[in-house]
Specification:
Blueprint: H1 2-13, E1 18-26, H2 37-42, E2 52-55, E3 59-63, E4 75-79, E5 91-92, E6 114-119, E7 124-129, E8 132-133, E9 140-141, E10 146-151, E11 156-162, E12 174-180, E13 191-196, E14 201-206, E15 211-215, E16 228-231, E17 234-237, E18 242-248, E19 253-258, E20 263-268, H3 269-273, E21 286-291, E22 298-301, E23 306-309, E24 316-321, E25 326-332, E26 340-346, E27 352-357, H4 360-364, E28 375-382, E29 404-405
Antiparallel strand pairs: 1-28, 2-3, 3-4, 4-5, 6-7, 7-10, 8-9, 10-11, 12-13, 13-14, 14-15, 16-17, 18-19, 19-20, 20-21, 21-29, 22-23, 23-24, 24-25, 26-27, 27-28
The structure holds 2-acetamido-2-deoxy-beta-D-glucopyranose (2 copies).
Length: about 400
C-alpha cells in the first residue's frame, strides 16, 4: 500500500505525467488484400504480429516480419488521422507488387521480411529487409539482407544496398535500425547502425561510401539466465541477442540491449564509425545500468537525454536519466502494455512518444485469443490535455520502486 501511495504522489507531483491514448487497436491484424486467390489462401491472421512502427506526417508504417507462414505483406501503412481506437485495414507499402512473398513467390528484388523502418529528415523511409522467411519456424535465409529506401512522397524506391556476404553470419537476422545524420550534409551520407539479433552483432552502414562492416561484443549475446520472460500469467523462452536500439545525437552514443538480459549497454558512435575493429581489439562498451526485467523497445528523449524503456514484467514505460539518475514512470497498464515492441519519439508529432504493444508472448506460444485486443498503437499524451485521471490505471497492488540501478563498470 505504501508503495502505491508513494507512486501516486510521485505522479501527482510531476506536472509532466502522461497517459496512454490508443490510436489503433486490433484483436488480429486485418489487411486490404488484393483479389488474388494465392494471397487469400495463404493468409493466417493468428500468425501475424507486427514488430515495428514509424510515424509519418499522414501515415503510420507498420512492419510485420514473416516469423511464421501466412503473412500477406511485410511492410504496410495505415492513415494517421483516425478516430481513436479504430481498427483500420493495413495497406501494403509501397504496393502489393512488392509483396509477392505473400503469395509464395520469392524474388530478392522485392521485400521479403521487415522488422523495423525509420524515416529520415527528407521523409524517406529506410527499410531493412532481413531476407529470412519463417524465422521462428524454420529460419530460411532466402535472400541476402538489404536496405531499401523509399521516398514517402512519391513512394518510389530511390536507393538500395545489398549487404555483402562477409558482414553476415549463417544466423544473421537484421531487426532494428538507427539513422545517425549528425555529421551528414545530405540525406545520403548518414550512418546506419543495425542490430543482428541472432548473429549476434551489429552492422554499420556508411551511406557516403556505401561500405558496411560488422562489430561484435559479448554484451550483444543473450544471457542464458535471462531467456525466460514473464508477462502477466504467461511465460515464454527466447534466446535472442541485441535488438533494442536507441541513439543520443548529443552524447554521440548508441544504447542497446539484447532481449535476454536485464542490462543496458552503450557504445560511442565514433567507435562504430571507425570501421572494422582490428583483430583482437575490443569495442569500448559500457554497462549503463540494470533493469527490473527484460525488455525490447528503447528510445532516447532528445530534449533531456533520458532513456525510455519498457520492462516486460512490470508492464510499464519508464524513463531514466543516467547522468542525474532520475527515474519516472510514464505509463503503466497490465492490459495495454503486454510486450511493448517499439517506443518512438516522434518529431513529426511535436515530440510525442508513440508505442506499439503486441502481446507477442501469446502469438509466440500460439495461444492468441481473437476475442481480446492483442495489438495496440498508442500515444503518450501529457496529462494536462486529458480528461481521465491517470490514477485509474493504477490498480495493481505491486509496483517496483526502482526500475534501474546505475551500476558503473562490469
Ligand atoms: C524479380 O523482380 C524483378 C523486378 O520486377 C524482375 O525484373 C525480375 O524478372 C524478377 N525475377 C524473377 C526471377 O522473377
Ligand atoms: C537496485 O538496488 C537495490 C539495492 O541494492 C535492490 O534492492 C534492487 O533490487 C535493485 N534493482 C534492480 C532493478 O536491479
Amino acid at each position: 500500500m505504501q508503495l502505491i501511495v508513494l507512486l501516486l504522489e510521485l505522479l501527482c507531483a510531476s506536472a509532466t505525467a502522461e497517459i496512454l491514448e490508443t490510436i489503433a487497436q486490433w484483436p488480429l491484424l486485418d489487411f486490404a488484400l488484393p483479389y488474388e486467390r494465392e494471397f487469400l489462401n495463404r493468409y493466417r491472421p493468428e500468425n501475424v504480429v507486427p514488430t515495428g512502427i514509424e510515424i509519418g506526417w499522414d501515415r503510420i508504417f507498420v512492419s510485420v516480419p514473416r516469423l511464421r507462414a501466412g503473412i500477406p505483406s511485410t511492410l504496410n501503412y495505415i492513415p494517421r488521422n483516425l478516430p481513436l481506437e479504430s481498427s483500420p485495414q493495413l495497406q501494403a507499402y509501397p504496393s502489393w507488387d512488392w509483396h509477392a512473398a505473400g503469395r509464395g513467390d520469392l524474388n530478392c528484388s522485392m521485400l521479403i521480411s521487415v522488422y523495423r523502418t525509420k524515416l529520415d529528415r527528407c521523409d524517406r523511409l529506410w527499410v531493412v529487409d532481413s531476407g529470412v522467411m519463417t524465422s521462428i519456424e524454420d529460419f530460411r535465409p532466402v535472400c541476402p539482407p538489404k536496405i531499401m529506401v523509399f521516398d514517402s512522397k512519391t513512394n518510389e524506391l530511390v536507393r538500395q544496398f545489398t549487404f555483402p556476404r562477409e558482414v553476415l553470419r549463417p544466423n544473421t537476422l537484421l531487426t532494428n535500425v538507427i539513422i545517425d545524420d549528425t555529421a551528414a550534409t545530405t540525406c545520403d551520407d548518414v550512418f546506419l547502425y543495425i542490430s543482428d539479433t541472432t548473429g549476434p552483432g551489429m552492422l554499420v552502414f556508411d551511406g557516403a561510401t556505401e561500405r558496411s562492416w560488422r562489430v561484435v561484443h559479448a554484451t550483444m549475446y543473450p544471457h542464458p539466465d535471462f531467456s525466460t520472460y514473464r508477462i502477466g500469467s504467461d511465460t515464454f523462452e527466447l534466446l535472442d541477442g541485441v535488438v533494442g536500439l536507441a541513439f543520443s545525437a548529443r552524447l554521440g552514443t548508441v544504447y542497446y540491449q539484447p532481449l535476454a538480459t536485464d542490462r543496458l549497454f552503450s557504445v560511442p558512435t565514433t567507435a562504430l564509425q571507425a570501421g572494422p575493429l582490428p583483430f583482437g581489439e575490443q569495442l569500448p562498451v559500457t554497462l549503463v545500468g540494470k533493469k527490473s526485467s527484460q525488455g525490447l523497445a528503447l528510445a532516447v528523449d532528445p530534449r533531456d537525454d533520458a532513456i525510455l524503456f519498457s520492462p516486460f514484467t512490470e508492464t510499464a514505460i519508464a524513463a531514466w536519466q543516467p547522468q542525474t539518475n532520475q527515474q519516472r514512470i510514464l505509463a503503466y497498464s497490465p492490459e495495454k502494455l503486454q510486450f511493448t515492441a517499439e517506443i518512438r519519439w516522434t518529431e513529426r508529432d511535436d515530440g510525442n512518444y508513440w508505442l506499439l504493444s503486441t502481446r507477442f508472448q501469446k502469438f509466440f506460444r500460439q495461444e492468441v485469443n481473437a476475442r481480446d485486443i492483442n495489438i495496440r498503437i498508442m500515444r503518450l499524451v501529457p496529462m494536462q490535455y486529458q480528461k481521465h485521471p491517470i490514477l485509474n490505471s493504477f490498480s495493481q497492488p505491486y509496483f517496483p520502486p526502482q526500475f534501474y540501478n546505475n551500476t558503473i563498470g562490469f
